[in-house]
Design brief:
heterodimer, A: Rossmann fold, Rossmann fold, 2 domains, six-stranded parallel sheet, 14 helices, B: ABC transporter involved in vitamin B12 uptake, BtuC, two-stranded antiparallel sheet, globular
Chain lengths: 403, 378
């Protein structure tokens, strides 16, 4: 009896510990899921809790919008709209920037952070910025709030850059940074306040979903099956990609089934293999390209035809896409946006106005353009993103090659 | 409870009776074995397999089945590794982190250089053995509970992997290396292909059965069942348990090698493997706390678990339920197997003396030693 109890206690302890760990690993954006749901709950129903028709329509229109600025420098382009007056921030001398980063836990963020570091070097040479202090929150809301508070109280910062880990949870942190009266630039994922001097982001998740789902729908027949591979639930920029795609698949009679993979290639391969065992899979949709190669390999290993597929502008996908000759599209969540926050601060300290909401272009790479991007990024590692936009920065290409 | 269970102490006065496990015909022995938790898992595998075939006729194709077996090989190998540690009364929570570390090591060290495959494999095995030795020695010599030691190892390795990779994938190692986990013997009649991972699984399983029938295996089970008695018998517990941890880490390393081939490099490969391995071991009827269970039941537990997930998928249950299912299984399996072993499904020796009184004082922990371990005929 004693042994039984001991065994049961031990197993209970295993459960407790492992449950704790696995929540951390698999649901870093947990709080986003719960909190943001309440915000958009009136939109629930058949269309899903993340779908907001107005945002869908807006981003759909922005896909064909005219962008101000030089096309050769897409990281400075923006859609005409409300501008922030920054004359109060105008001042001379090199400034200290404090950057609260959500994480560098995926290749997209790693590539972007390298670009940002090289952009910093360029601005330091120009004497605009003296130093950038970076805190990495490692995908944790609480850590990032602490990082922001540290910057406010002890960072001696002249400006803040925040790349929020999650939307709702980071809102108070951004508000506190705004209250210091110093310029605040938010980029990538958004927050629920417009106190920031500029909020920089590419068009968005709906545009991604529309581009990809329209491509698949155009290339598939009604009734065809699509496997949708999603990284994790609860992050707005990922949820909206799927929300838009799901709607378009439904409208076109495409049978899409979605799975969460955690970007784990083992999981991805299992899911595709299981789906192939169930029947023919005509298309693969991904909410991010990380793991695309594993998905394609699952088709190879099963000895069936390649699917029509959308990945991302990650080099691993572009290369595998070319090798296999499958019919595909590489949607882009513009990685060059990592340059923009520092360039925005340069403008802000010069007293030039910047867009209040700085919407950057976001254009997929088609099969016709693929060769051009493969050549331009020759020698870059598999985790590199073709539209990283750092070709003119110091350290190119070594800084991106040796990571 | 103790009143219901016979004891060894009462048998001293008799001539050696035939062991109950060796009584009866082969058929009845198999039937008796299947009635234990360690045997029932094989029945469960059969039931799940039939259910999947009914719900998805494509699964009856031998090629699909053998591919399924191939892709389940890494988790089955990990489960057998975890078995050694659990049966000796400890835990290894560092397994998933070891896999992740080995996967990243393979990606970074071997890269695109075919000449580094052999050195890479040796390096990975050496690293695996070293991790096992550390886990084992800290547990046994420093007397830190294995739960804490391996939890610490898990965090240390995860941190290291995160530091090296920043949390994102680096490039895959060269295809020739990945072929170990991805390739197979082609053009085989009926099944089309025999995946290398399946062959490796069979080799590992055979070695494991052999090892568990050696004095090492017997002593390991005894160490889990009654560490004090094993200690007094003169067996160096620290050595046996350390070797169990080394076997566990090496199994994780082999699983890692197969997974790099199967899927590619990503720091999340292996995430949750320790949990899946423990679930598989428990589902295989191996008692947490040690001293009971058969090594192949652990492998069968892994197959049962994967079959269950496949069945849930083909029934259209969202994959988000997976963790919940796994959690419920581990609770249910522990509860059921603890009961089932206590009840004792084996034919009992009839002893002339009344065992109930004598045992009460003599053996406070009244379990039949090595019952589960000797169900070798299942």
């Amino acid at each position: 009896m004693r042994r039984t109890i001991r065994g049961t206690l031990a197993s209970a302890a295993v459960l407790a510990v492992l449950a704790g760990c696995s929540t951390d690993v698999e649901e870093p954006a947990d709080s986003t899921a719960t909190e943001s749901t309440s915000e958009s709950e009136e939109a629930s129903g058949d269309e899903g809790e993340w779908f907001v028709q107005a945002d869908f329509d807006e981003q759909d229109a922005q896909r064909s919008a005219t962008f101000e600025g030089d096309e050769a420098e897409p990281w400075l382009q923006y859609i005409d709209g409300e501008m922030s007056d920054t004359s109060e921030f105008k001042s001379d001398g090199a400034k200290k920037v404090c950057f609260a980063n959500a994480s560098v836990s995926n290749p997209w963020r790693q590539t972007g952070f390298i670009t940002m570091t090289q952009q910093l070097e360029a601005l330091q040479d120009k004497g605009v910025i003296s130093d950038m202090e970076v805190r990495d929150a490692q995908d944790d809301d609480n850590t990032q709030l602490a990082d922001i508070d540290y910057f406010i109280s002890e960072g001696n910062c002249d400006a803040f850059i925040i790349s929020p880990n999650s939307t709702a949870a980071m809102t108070p942190g951004v508000e506190r940074a705004c209250e210091t009266g110093k310029p605040v630039v938010v980029f990538d994922r958004g927050v629920e306040t417009d106190c920031a001097t500029s909020f920089i982001h590419p068009i968005g998740g709906y545009a991604w979903g529309i581009d990809t789902a329209e491509f698949l729908s155009d290339n598939l027949e009604e009734g065809d099956k699509v496997v949708a591979l999603r990284i994790l639930p609860g992050v707005d920029v990922l949820e909206t990609r799927w929300a838009a795609a799901e709607k378009i698949f439904e409208e076109n009679g495409i049978e899409a089934e979605d799975f969460f993979t955690g970007a784990d290639p083992t999981e991805i391969k299992k899911i595709i293999t299981d789906a192939l065992n169930q029947g023919e899979v005509a298309g693969v949709w991904m909410d991010a390209g990380d793991g695309a190669v594993a998905a394609i390999e699952a088709f190879e290993d099963a000895g069936v035809d390649y699917p029509v597929m959308t990945g991302e502008d990650e080099m691993s996908f572009l290369r595998k896409w070319e090798d296999t000759g499958l019919n595909g599209l590489a949607p882009v969540y513009s990685n060059f946006q990592w340059r923009t926050p520092l360039l925005a601060l340069e403008k802000i300290f010069a007293g030039e106005e910047v867009p209040k909401e700085w919407v950057l272009p976001q254009t997929p790479i088609t099969e016709d353009e693929r060769a051009e991007y493969l050549e331009a990024n020759d020698g870059m590692p598999d985790g590199h993103y073709a539209k990283f936009g750092g070709e003119d920065l110091p350290g190119f290409p070594e800084a991106w090659q040796d990571r | 409870m103790s009143t219901a269970t016979p004891s060894i102490t009462t048998t001293e006065t008799q001539a050696r009776p035939e062991l109950p496990l060796h009584q009866g015909s082969l058929g009845s022995r198999i039937a008796a074995g299947l009635a234990t938790p360690g045997g029932a898992v094989f029945v469960l595998v059969g039931v799940l397999l039939v259910s999947i075939m009914v719900s998805n006729p494509n699964f009856t194709d031998p090629g699909a089945l053998i591919r399924f077996a191939g892709r389940t090989a890494p988790i089955a190998i990990a489960a057998m590794g975890q078995y050694y540690v659990i049966v000796s009364g400890e835990f290894d929570l560092s397994m998933g982190a070891v896999i992740a570390a080995q996967v990243v090591l393979a990606g970074n060290f071997i890269g695109q250089d075919e000449g580094r495959i052999i050195p890479g494999l040796l390096l990975m095995l050496a690293v695996g053995a070293l991790i096992g030795i550390i886990n084992g020695l800290v547990t046994t010599l420093l007397k830190v509970p294995s739960f804490i030691v391996t939890l610490g190892m898990m965090l240390a390795l995860s941190g290291l992997v995160r530091y090296i990779t920043g949390g994102a994938a680096s490039g895959n190692p060269v295809d020739a290396f990945r072929d170990i986990g991805r390739g197979g013997i082609e053009d085989v009649p009926v099944v089309d292909v025999i995946p290398y991972p399946l062959i490796i699984l069979v080799v590992v399983a055979t070695l494991s059965v052999w090892l568990m029938r050696r004095p090492f295996g017997r002593t390991l089970i005894a160490a889990g069942d009654n560490p004090e008695a094993t200690h007094y018998s003169g067996a160096p517990l620290w050595s046996y348990k350390t070797r169990a941890f080394v076997l566990s880490s090496l199994s994780a390393t082999v699983a890692g090698i197969l997974l790099v081939g199967y899927a590619g490099v990503h720091p999340s490969v292996g995430a949750g493997y320790e949990f899946t391995a423990i679930t598989a071991v428990v589902l295989g009827g191996v008692v947490l706390g040690g001293g009971r269970g058969w090594v192949l039941s652990a492998a069968a537990g892994a197959f049962a678990l994967e079959l269950l997930f496949t069945l849930l998928t083909s029934l259209g249950v969202p994959s988000t339920w997976r963790d919940t299912v796994q959690g419920l299984i581990i609770i249910a399996a522990v509860a059921v197997s603890a009961r089932a072993w206590q009840v004792g499904r084996r034919p009992r020796r009839t002893t002339p003396t009344d065992p109930s009184r004598a045992t009460h004082i003599a053996t406070p922990s009244p379990n039949q030693p090595s019952t589960g371990a000797t169900t070798g005929e299942n």
